[in-house]
């Protein structure tokens, strides 16, 4: 069975200058709250759903970012559960996970990739 891989639709969410050097911001992307994280110290960007899967609260963009054994992560500010920003897996030992999104920077603008049906 052949599976077709769709290219995401790239949605601009703002200029790089609007994002803090080491932290997260919530952006409305195609009707969905997306947490966008800038790790200036690592020269990396990540995006994931803003919704905590544990409680459903829209808070992940306000979580603490860091790493766990080199894996970039965000810790929910409500319950401290940590999630990989690469895979979305909970790295706190729980079965929760979050959706991650592709992100890229072009000409000083931040873009989030959204899959369209």
From TrEMBL:
Keywords: 2Fe-2S, Heme, Iron, Iron-sulfur, Metal-binding, Nitrate assimilation, Oxidoreductase. PROSITE patterns: NIRD (PS51300), RIESKE (PS51296). GO terms for biological process: nitrate assimilation. Residues 10-112 form the Rieske domain. GO terms for molecular function: 2 iron, 2 sulfur cluster binding; metal ion binding; nitrite reductase [NAD(P)H] activity. It comes from the Bacteria. This is Nitrite reductase small subunit NirD. It comes from Leptospira langatensis.
